[in-house]
Specification:
The complex is a heterodimer of chains A (about 375) and B (about 260). Chain A is mostly helical and about 375 residues long. Helices cover about 75% and strands about 5% of the residues of chain A. Chain A folds into two domains: about 280 residues, Orthogonal Bundle (ABC transporter involved in vitamin B12 uptake, BtuC); about 90 residues, Winged helix-like DNA-binding domain superfamily/Winged helix DNA-binding domain (Arc Repressor Mutant, subunit A), CATH 1.10.10. Chain A contains 17 helices and three strands. Classes of the chains: A mainly alpha (about 375), B alpha/beta (about 260). Chains A and B meet through α8 and α9 of A and α4 of B.
Amino acid sequence: MDLGQILYDLLFDYTLRTVALGASILGLVSGALGAFAVLRRQSLLGDAISHAALPGVVLAFLITRTKLPLVLMVGAAIAGWLATLWMMSIIKNTRIKEDGALGLVLSVFFGFGLMLLTFTQRLPDSRQAGLDHFLFGQAAALLAGDVIAMAALGGLALLLLGLFWKEFKLLSFDREFGASLGFPMGKLDILLTTLLVVAIVIGLQAVGVVLMSAMLVAPAAAARQWTDRLGIMVLLSSLFGVLAGVTGAVISSIGRGFSTGPTVVLCAGAIVFFSMLFAPNRGLIWNWARQRRNRRQLHMESVLRDLYFMAGQHADPDHAHSLQALRAVSAGRGGVQVSLQALEHKGMVRHTGSDQWALTPAGAVEAQRLLHEFE
Amino acid sequence: MTEDSYAIEVTDLTVAYRDKPVLWDVDLQAPPGILMAIVGPNGAGKTTLLKAILGLVRPAAGQVLIYGASYAQQRHLVGYVPQRGSVDWDFPTTALDVVTMGRYGSLGWIRRPGKPERQQALDALEKVHMLPYADRQISQLSGGQQQRVFLARALVQNAQIYFMDEPFQGVDATTERAIVALLQELRAAGKTVLVVHHDLQTVPEYFDWVTLLNVRRIASGPVAEAFTDNNLRLAYGGRVAFLRDSASTNGAEVHLPVPVQER
């Protein structure tokens, strides 16, 4: 299938259009709220919430006997929310630390969810078919009704995020200062965590409970690489979320037997990998290049200083020195010739004969400036 | 001085974490327009005292009055400089943005900062000599510069009373001088400043009032009255040796407490 065909289908093929829309909404919302989760060091909280949502989904089905998206999402949200509250109370009231509480709640809820799921699958009721999609996600199974429910919940979450932007920034950066200003930080914390729950819940059907947290963490981690502004980071994170969501969902709905969750996560992983390598300032390649440039600059300066000192031992400032002599003073550091050539290019030294080098007046001035800087 | 004229009045303040009392029955009165240092050994409850006054820690008992009314009512009169280490400096934001946060309280819910807030933040940055760094990401600032950003954030709160938690911690000499100058400026403008402080040597030089704290209040008053050998010994126990500086001849006796290594 060629790209033009895919683009055509994205617009006019019902299934693909629905899938792409759903994945965009989930990427948008989870990207934005994931950015806050990552900045507040709550990446793992998202993982716990999404795992904990499974029993909520199955129970919602068992009680109502429908698979209406909104019903299942509400079930997931309630379970995720209860898990979060339980976790917070464990951290507050016992000696168990955050990681322990997370692991505990995650596995208990998820185990219960799996148990309910296998139980439900043995029921003679055929309507349960498809509930297991919530494990690894099945974007191709998204229907217009699902997407509308996702858009409604996600839109509300984004609206609240925009409305309380200033308060959430304060909460994430300096909670105590915010409290001293009179903002009820505890309530804001619960509100922001609830929005996180919403973001997770709307992605569950498409990406699945097991890998949903990647949609929170990966776009945010990638976005952090590219910017030092919160607003831009959140926008970028949403954008990356959409990109990963749409690419992954489309690939999985075209190919047979690809669960959406893993495919989306691989796409998000690719974005993170690219960002880690190539982002300016924070990227590895950038860092490596900067270090290399610094090292070269320092080496060049030291060769220039050596030449200056050696010239000072002769009455004639233009006195040339051999490459060997320079190598000897530079105490075993390699690359003297490379540095000399770079300096020649800048007009600070000149080549006076075979392997003979002398300072130019400009080079002497520069060497003096460097020496003053050191003192 | 009538009772109502205290800028800060703390009565019988007791704070406990679980069963352990951190502050026990602390009384504190600060008249307006003074620079007060709060000193005491580690774990004496200095930070807790600040947080309890600011309502960040719930006291088990006691009362806090700011200009005769509760903190919740007088919040707009108070500025706060938390410990620098209490936040993540890798947060994606700029110095200017952090300083603008000082205006969030008067902005209230939902309203975003605009041009006037931006200008106030720039003015405050100028006051702490940080204007050239306004657009810097905060992790690219030195410790002293970060501290000055925090001070600027408190300045834009335009408060009457300032609470500062160890503003001198880990800053260079330039920043220390800048902070001292700022403190004096605040006092000259009639503000009251409470500073949690660690360096006993500089207390008489930088401050005019002092509170010695070690879970209980040991002493509180003008430095000349409260900052005595005896009170220091009571606050620090045997952990401080005192060298009487007999060379000092300028009238006031100078006591230089020297911390002794704990075993």
